[in-house]
Amino acid sequence: MTALARTAPVTRRRFSWARLAAYAILIALTVVYLAPMAMLVITSFKTLPEFTRDAISMPKSFSIDNFIEAWNKANFARYLVNTVLYTAVSTAIFVITGTFLSIAIARRFVRGSGFLFTMFLIALFLPPALIPQFQLILRLGLYNNPIGYVMLFLVNPIGIVILVNYIRTIPTELDEAAAIEGCSYFRFVIQIVIPLIKPAIATVAVLHAIGVWNELILATIYLTKADYYPITRGLIVFNGIYGNNWPVLAAAVLMIAVPIAAFFVLMQRYIIGGVTAGAVKG
Amino acid sequence: MRYLFGNGAARLAPYLLITPGLLLYLLFALGPSLATVVFSFTDASGLPRLPIHWIGFDNYKEFLTLGAAARENLDALVRTLIFCVSVTVIQFSIGLFVAVLLNQGLRGTKFFRTLFFFPVILGVTIQGLMWTLFLYPIGGPLATVLDWFGLQSEFLGGQPREAFIWVMVVQIWANMGITMVIFLAGLQTIPDEVYEAARIDGAGRGQLFRRITWPLLTPSVNTNLVLTIIGSLQAWQLFYVLISYRPGTQVLGYVVYATAFGQTSGSTAGTTFRQGYGAAAGVVLFLIVLAIGITTQYLLRRREARLLG
Amino acid sequence: MRKLIVAVALIVAACGGGATSAPATPAASVPAGETAAPVATPALSGTVRVLIHQNPPFVAFMDAFNKTFETNHPGVKVEMEVVNANDLMAKTQSRLTAQDIDVIDIFAFDRGVQPFMKNVDAPGWQSLIDAGLLLDITDQAFVKNYDAASVADAGSYNGKVYAVNLGRVGYSGLYYNKDLFAANNVAVPTTWNELVAACATFKAANIGCITAGGKDGWPIFVGAYGLLGSYFPDQLGLVQGLWDGSIKYTDAKWLELLGKYKVYDGEMIEAGASGIAGDAAPGRFASGEVAMQAGGTWYAAAIDTLSPSFKWGYIPFPGSDNAADNQFMFGKYDQGWAIANDSPNKDAALAYLSEFSDPANYQAFVDAVGPIPTQPDAKLNTTLGAEIAPYLATFKIGFENYWLGPKGVGQYATPMFVNLFKPFGTFDDPAAAAAQAQADLQSGLDAAQ
After folding, report:
1. CB spacing of B5 vs A183 below 8 angstroms
2. For a FRET experiment, which of B82, C16, C54, C255 has its CA 20 to 30 Å from that of B177?
3. Which chains touch C (3 or more CB pairs under 8 A)?
4. What CA–CA distance (Å, rounded) separates B46 from B58?
5. Which residues of B touch A185 (CB under 8 A)?
């Protein structure tokens, strides 16, 4: 964490142009990152005539009318809950099935492991097969159905690849030791391997969750009942109806962004830690 | 690897455990993708009960060679590549740069790290809407800044090239956090002693980075490259939110979706349902992504072996 | 008494299995003027799923209509989905295929394949019909409520009726702010030169000249349909001419027209218009910040709702230097209703349409949304009605209804569908735009030989 910093002698705090430049750049970047959010906040407290007259003025009064209106016009709490559910369920199922799959493939316990792994590598690049997937979900009777929607997210080739690569770094002596101890395969997997690959699982879980959380098009295609919408779809629909009313729209976006922000700040150690844990070892 | 966990029935244990995962993969990924390939050789419309005929490579011929439309498809292809390369290079560089900056233990590192990663969590729709507001052409923040310089722009609604660039900007803004965070973690795996030793030998800052940091960062570099390249090749939802289907701005992923679902905007081409044709576009996209992906993997693997032995 | 009827209806619905086989037009027997249908009809039940496109006055009207319908038919629930007009076809396709929809809002059956066209893709609605996804409603009583021309032109295919059309819209006009015009001493323009002068005056006074909801893409170029109309009054002829080569974009007439497009894009449309959402344009216009709005008659209802005391007028876009050329209104058949052939609740769906088509309900629709009516007895009693009355007799169906390009044409093959000139497009020079347009069109025409 402090490796590069020790170029200056530690004994005296020397003013360093490099440090100043670093701070300047970081602050400039902060502006770039905060500005859109600030604009969102300002807009959400204005009235529409205020906004039409001057888009960047400070709001005259900090009334929460827009928030109330947005809240009444669409069921954002529902959207949030939906998104959380979709993400949690699909990530859980994927992580479990994917882990078992990866262990077997990485150690070649299954015939054709090499072939399977190649298939997953190729699957990384596949564009979503929209129409056949659609026909499949239809035939299963799961159109416009939360269960059907979740099923779209139970496969994630990147996750498999990351897991397999990580598992391969675990020495095989471990397997031998476990077998000697009389472990069954199940116990080996669950009590020995999984604890060891927790970082990779974390990464895969977070990446997958972000993917599900972010999905807009599949939600558009498969979910037509407003009660099932995740946030992405809910906000776009709201935009379609209220896109002409930026203050209300901004309020809606804020209402969704704030809980997400809160969650993130609380859990950032795990989220960021998760992303990096298994990604750095490669 | 020799299976050590029993014989006979016990040998089946792994197969049992992989069955759900494999089944899901076959059913939801491989199956539909194969079906797409098959459809690409037909004139399927995506609607039920209409007759389907095998037409061989006609869809491909039309997509790649028929008239000015084919040229536009090729433009979309090129645009996809431009998007991928630009986004990857810029996002990679900025992410690395910021990670190096933050790795010095400056004050407020945690704040910066959280802030820069934050857009990733917000998701495509919120990112898109935030920027649409920020780029509001009638007196919006950026419009006002430009006005100070006597410039005016329609941003996302204006020239296709400009709109395209703005989408790139938002894409980079939104995802730089992941790149940065992965590099940060990678930087932190490099032990101080290595730097100390090199510094004692008289290495300057530039040399430190080139000879020590950069090679030791290889795993993070690889991860980031793969994530960014593949991500940017397949990411078009931001286009959907920011500028919808405008001629001169599409990337191939969006073209595939739009042709399959008849969502070509407003009045331009009318809506037609051509699933077979859309499938052919999808296969073309897949082949491109595959080629790029495999090449990248190969080059990275080779470099990693060379650098880290 | 009400409760008893409701209870009986519920019992009948539950025990009778809901769907009845009685002819599904109970509302047709209701005398005109009475909007509440009596409950003593075959009890309907289940859900009616409706898909409509986004248009705020229309959505508001439908919300009210749905409530009334549910009150009149206590066993029925109406589920309505609203999507952006750009997404309507994609949504229609997926929901019809999924058999998850009953009543769909569908735009007129336009762009049919003309005899002089070769190598074209069938329009979306035709594919829907060929796939058997739309219900044949030729024999439904409520179809007769609509005038025969609209049924034939906008809802029929191969002699059968699949949709009823709810109205025509004009799209070649300009809304203008009467007060702003008076305050700045500008006369209502009747020729192109007068329009240019008017814009110059407004710009000098720091007032935006023309606004449009550019964010949705189409509102800017649709605003120029009046320009096109003043040069080519026979728009079917224009389509045919382009197809057989007798009209080329590089002709002098087109060059002149494109020159005017350039002025329209670059100098008349207000800067920043591309940031205004389609539905926000009436608001911008009604706020008094701009002198005019380029758009179709469908915005009138929104303008009146936003600002009931706002004084505005609607004139044909004066594209020609000769006032006599500028007196036609061009438009198209706009939205209509169709029923899914696979609908699980056809009776309720048919009753839904039937009730909508009841002259009293239809008049309410016209009052709320403001289309040019397609029912002979309905009247457009609004400001819009008065403004466009002089042009109704010579109303012309516009280009959009007819144009279908051969496969392989480039995006500029129909320059009237694209924002060509800066700042919304890439071109600066009409000749260059014309050359590109003709080349794009030619590539498809050549391939069709």
Report:
1. yes
2. B82
3. A, B
4. 17
5. 5-6, 10, 13-14, 17
Q: Which range is most confident: A6-10, A79-83, B273-277, C283-287? A: A79-83
Expressed as residue numbers, the domain containing A169 is 74-237+258-281
Nearest CA in chain B to C110: B270
pLDDT of C26:
38
Is the ipTM above a cut-off of 0.85? no
Number of domains within chain A: 1
Percent of chain C with pLDDT over 90: 47
Average pLDDT, chain C: 85
Residue C178 lies in a domain: yes
Among the partner-chain residues C90, C131, C422, the one whose CB lies closest to the CB of B47 is C131
pTM beyond cutoff 0.90: no
Can you name the residues that pair with C104 across neighbouring β-strands? C51, C338
Nearest-Cα residue of chain C relative to residue B137: C272
| A278: confidence class by pLDDT, cuts 50, 70, 90 | low
State the angle between helix axes of A198-214 and A157-167 in degrees (0 to 180), rounded to the nearest 10: 170
- Mean of pLDDT values over B243-252: 83
Residue A234, pLDDT score: 87
- The answer to whether C283 contacts chain A (CB < 8 Å) is yes
Whether C300 contacts C383, CB under 8 Å:
yes
**CATH number assigned to the domain comprising residue A216:** 1.10.3720.10
Q: Do C98 and A143 touch (CB under 8 A)?
A: yes
Do C348 and C102 contact (CB within 8 A), yes or no?
Answer: yes
Residue B19: strand, helix, or coil: helix
Tokens of A107: 């150690």
Distance CA A237, CA C233 (A): 39
Q: CB neighbours of A155 closer than 8 A, spacing ≥ 6?
A: A94, A123, B24, B25, B28, B29
How many other CB atoms sit within 10 Å of the CB of residue B2? 10
Is B212 a domain residue?
yes
Determine the distance in angstroms separating the CA of C122 from the nearest CA of chain B, rounded to an integer: 7
> Please, are residues C401 and C330 in contact by the beta-carbon 8 Å criterion?
no
Distances (CA, A) of A6 to A12, B102, B103, B112, B195: 12, 14, 11, 21, 9
Number of compact structural domains in chain C: 2
Measured distance CA(C383)–CA(C300) in Å, rounded: 8
User: What are the tokens at A165?
Assistant: 């690569």
Report how far residue A219's alpha carbon sits from residue A90's, in angstroms, rounded to the nearest whole number. Answer: 14
> Between B50 and A4, where is the model more confident?
B50
Please work out, in degrees rounded to the nearest 5, the angle formed at the alpha carbon of residue A170 by the alpha carbons of A167 and A176. 115
Q: Please identify which residue in the block is written with the tokens 């935030």.
A: B130
Domain range for residue C124?
A: 2-169+333-387
Cβ–Cβ of A243/C97 closer than 8 Å? no
Q: How far apart are CA B262 and CA B270, in angstroms?
A: 8
Binary contact (C90, B261; C-beta < 8 A): yes
Rounded CA gap, C176 and C209, in Å? 10
Quote the pLDDT of residue B133. 92
